[in-house]
Write a structure and sequence with these properties.
alpha/beta; 10 helices; globular; binds S-adenosylmethionine
């Protein structure tokens, strides 16, 4: 598993869609229910799954700026959105998609959010969104991000932030050691400084609450079983690769864990949140 591999992102998209918290999404939808149109900036867009999940719940006319530093993922987003839409046309800066009764203009922006956050959020927008991103960034970046959101009075919809919880069924003797090693790997620098990992969601909630935001948050756990075997196996292989890099677990223990986990079920904890400043 490489978190930024389009094959991995495609594999996780159905599980992400099923896991997304309905109350959080409904709070976001309700906030914009009376808007005729909406502009959304999606940070770390990957192959565009956040747009596909959220667009059906937003006003009919939508303008999305999809931001990622990886040009291959922006290209994957362009292709995947073309396949997802009922109709696709070209507009000056990207694509115009028709999906049911929605008109969705999409711009694809290559930017490094570690250095270009201020420029990325400079053009006006109604909503900032991100999925499976906040646990990758650093505590310092999250502070600067929350300051910037508050200064611009921007709402945030952040889905699928990993909260560190993993429950494998049935349990295995090495689960705790593997989780410890995986978290050690997760805390490494992902381009933003040491990653916030499981502390990201509570930190963002606290920072935004201090800045006067009202926040709706809820669980968006993956609950993976036999129907998700390909995803479980990819997840297992990714965890094993990450743990090996840490050197914290010996090879026979890792091999035993991998063999058992590829056939197991698992719950992986995530948090969704929608945060907005009242007028
Ligand atoms: C785990 S993926 C999530 C992708 C997508 N949001 C989804 O839910 O499928 C994290 C995304 O953040 C992007 N990313 C990581 N570091 C970045 C950076 N410094 N600037 C912009 N994007 C970045 C990756 O390329 C990747 O698309």
């Amino acid at each position: 598993m490489n978190g930024f591999d389009p094959i991995w992102l495609a594999l996780r998209e159905p599980a992400d869609r099923a896991a997304r918290n309905g109350e959080v999404r409904a709070a976001c939808a309700a906030h914009f229910a009376d808007s005729r149109g909406i502009t959304i900036v999606d940070l770390g867009c990957g192959a565009g799954s956040n747009l596909r999940a959220l667009a059906p719940h937003l006003p009919r006319k939508q303008f999305w700026r999809l931001v990622d530093h990886d040009p291959a993922l922006l290209e994957a987003a362009r292709s995947a959105l073309g396949r997802w839409a009922d109709g696709v046309g070209m507009v000056e800066n990207g694509l115009r998609l028709a999906k049911h009764d929605l008109q969705i203009d999409v711009e694809f922006i290559q930017a490094d959010l570690a250095s270009d956050l201020i420029e990325t959020l400079a053009p006006s927008a109604d909503l900032v969104s991100a999925a499976a991103l906040l646990d990758l960034v650093s505590v310092g970046w999250l502070r600067a991000f929350c300051d910037l959101l508050a200064r611009k009075r921007l709402p945030l919809y952040a889905a699928l932030t990993y909260n560190g919880e993993e429950r494998w069924i049935p349990p295995h003797a090495h689960d705790a050691a593997v989780r410890h090693a995986f978290h050690a790997h997760q805390a490494r620098d992902k381009g933003f400084g040491p990653a916030a990992g499981p502390q990201a969601a509570p930190l963002v909630v606290g920072l935004l609450a201090q800045r006067g935001y009202q926040i709706v948050e809820g669980r968006s756990d993956w609950r993976l079983d036999g129907d998700d075997r390909a995803l479980i196996r990819a997840l297992t292989d990714g965890v094993v690769a990450a743990c090996r890099e840490t050197g914290l677990i010996d090879a026979p223990a890792m091999q035993s864990w991998r063999g058992a986990r590829r056939e197991a079920s698992v719950i992986i904890g995530h948090i969704d949140l929608f945060a907005t400043l009242s007028d």
